[in-house]
Backbone:
């Protein structure tokens, strides 16, 4: 999956580098292609420019070298923090995205209700973020990201702040949504097991300046059972990723 | 808000409801915020009796007649209490109108500053001048320029109450997180959408903090205006000066008490409004 020119690609990065005005080189020579149905995770040591990669892909920042081509008609972004508007209920938070795009009230309310049902929060539609647990807030955030039916979904370590149990649940939930919606996913994490469990391709980044130092395919079909994590093949693959990380950090 | 208290039966096991705190009725909030003030007033009264009877020798007791005598004399004499209440009402009107104007100008001013960097550079120094200028020096000028009427007094109240409204709103408008701004950018929000759907709502708690401070200052502004403007229909501040000159201690003490009560009521009203609105805003009352 390294062909760079592809009609159906949602996102193509070609030799992308980013140098900040301060002189810090955050990324150098990163190339990757994402198509619908691809779920690529990026692991790397902290400060290696993983988040910068996502900001470049989303257009929040411009690359200093190389090119970023987004052909997806709709892109969504899930932040590290749920980033909910505290004065809006869960449902109104999900509605925000279609609201900004001028979707009529009735349609966006229906879509928000559907999305909340999909993430298991139907009964909490009228609660404010403050009344929800950390995991529930992240579900609302994911519902908001997916409500516009994106072709490309970018995830910036969304489960990093959650406790282990919630984190595993959220991984399963996200995978279910991925199977259902079939977007192209680019997911940043510093957890090796999360990277392997979620993706069909793991990119390992080196310490600053961030480069891709290993490209590891994950063979299993979706949906994957949670028990996969305890299997020997899973351990072998996480071992390979960890090894690549250890060599280059 | 009964829907908060009853989670539906169809919940997935993963989702645990966070118990919403029960919303207390507004009068309880009012009571809770005014009880300490009432206690403080009782403390003042106790201290007052103490000074009158234990500190002052009998020959000087006229300087501070005890509360029951001060209020008794003033309240029982329609020639004192009548004009006093009229004057009090005049000052209340000045404070309310001044506060409303300060709120409108303050929010507008802060919004303009928050929207454009150049506007901030131009307007911020004026806000600072407004804050640092000695209002007592300015009041006689306002009197000379605008006369001593309602409008001049309102102007004094506005000038005193404006700064906290500007600074708090400005601070609030900048309180939205960088990620929330990214969210707006990614969804191609217009400047107007960003203001109305993110910056303004995020500023509401800070605006109320400003409003509370501004309310207290508007009262002071109204009384300071009265105090300096002896011409025209008297406000409670004008009467304070008159009573002082006549050394009519009973009327003076009663008038001071009224102004204090006026300030307390004004402040409490906005504290209650703050909790009610901001609590509802975030779907819960109490701690922020």
Residues:
């Amino acid at each position: 999956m390294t062909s760079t020119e592809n009609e159906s690609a949602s996102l193509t990065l070609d030799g992308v580098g980013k140098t900040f005005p301060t002189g810090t080189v955050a990324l150098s020579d990163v190339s990757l292609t994402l198509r619908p149905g691809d779920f690529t995770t990026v692991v790397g040591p902290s400060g290696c420019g993983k988040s910068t990669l996502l900001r470049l892909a989303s257009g929040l920042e411009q690359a200093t070298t190389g090119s970023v081509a987004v052909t997806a008609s709709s892109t969504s972004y899930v932040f590290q923090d749920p980033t909910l508007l505290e004065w809006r209920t869960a449902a109104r938070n999900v509605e925000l995205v279609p609201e900004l795009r001028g979707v009529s009230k009735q349609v966006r309310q229906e879509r928000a209700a559907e999305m909340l049902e999909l993430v298991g929060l139907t009964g909490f539609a009228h609660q404010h973020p403050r009344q929800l647990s950390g995991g529930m807030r992240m579900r609302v955030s994911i519902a908001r990201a997916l409500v516009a039916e994106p072709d490309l979904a970018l995830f910036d370590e969304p489960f990093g702040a959650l406790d282990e149990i919630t984190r595993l649940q959220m991984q399963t939930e996200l995978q279910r949504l991925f199977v259902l919606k079939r977007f192209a996913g680019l997911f940043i994490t510093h957890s090796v097991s999360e990277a392997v469990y979620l993706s069909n391709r793991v990119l390992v980044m080196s310490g600053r300046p961030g480069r891709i130092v290993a490209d590891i395919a994950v063979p299993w079909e979706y949906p994957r059972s949670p028990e996969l994590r305890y299997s020997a093949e899973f351990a072998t693959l996480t071992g390979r990723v960890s090894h690549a990380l250890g060599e280059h950090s | 808000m009964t829907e908060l208290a009853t989670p539906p039966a169809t919940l997935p096991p993963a989702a645990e409801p966070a118990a919403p705190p029960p919303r207390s009725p507004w009068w309880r909030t009012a009571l809770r915020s005014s009880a300490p003030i009432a206690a403080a007033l009782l403390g003042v009264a106790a201290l007052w009796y103490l000074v009158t009877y234990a500190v002052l020798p009998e020959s000087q007791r006229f300087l501070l007649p005890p509360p029951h005598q001060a209020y008794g004399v003033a309240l029982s004499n329609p020639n004192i209490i009548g004009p006093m209440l009229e004057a009090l009402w005049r000052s209340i009107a000045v404070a309310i109108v001044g506060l409303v104007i300060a709120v409108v100008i303050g929010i507008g001013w802060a919004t303009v500053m928050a929207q454009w960097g150049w506007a901030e550079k131009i307007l911020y120094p004026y806000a600072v001048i407004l804050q640092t200028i000695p209002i007592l020096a300015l009041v006689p000028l306002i009197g000379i320029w605008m006369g001593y009427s309602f409008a001049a007094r309102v102007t004094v109240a506005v000038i005193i109450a404006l700064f906290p409204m500007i600074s708090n709103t400005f601070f609030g408008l900048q309180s939205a997180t960088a990620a929330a701004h990214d969210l707006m950018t990614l969804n191609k929000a217009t400047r107007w959408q960003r203001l109305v759907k993110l910056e303004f709502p995020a500023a509401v708690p800070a605006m109320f903090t400003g409003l509370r401070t501004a309310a207290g200052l508007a009262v002071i502004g109204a009384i300071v205006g009265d105090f300096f403007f002896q011409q025209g229909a008297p406000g409670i501040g004008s009467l304070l000066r008159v009573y002082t000159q006549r050394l009519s201690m009973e009327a003076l003490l009663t008038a001071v008490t009224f102004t204090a009560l006026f300030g307390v009521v004004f402040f409490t009203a906005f504290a209650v409004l703050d909790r009610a609105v901001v609590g509802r805003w975030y779907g819960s009352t109490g701690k922020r």
Observations:
- Strands of chain A lie at 11-19, 25-34, 39-43, 65-70, 75-78, 152-156, 184-189, 201-205, 212-217.
- Residues 164-181 of chain A form the longest helix (18 residues).
- The radius of gyration of chain A is 18 Å.
- The interface with chain B takes residues 58-60, 75-77, 79-81, 83, 85-87, 89, 96-97, 99-101, 120-124, 126-128, 130-133, 135-136, 139, 166, 169 of chain A (CB under 8 Å).
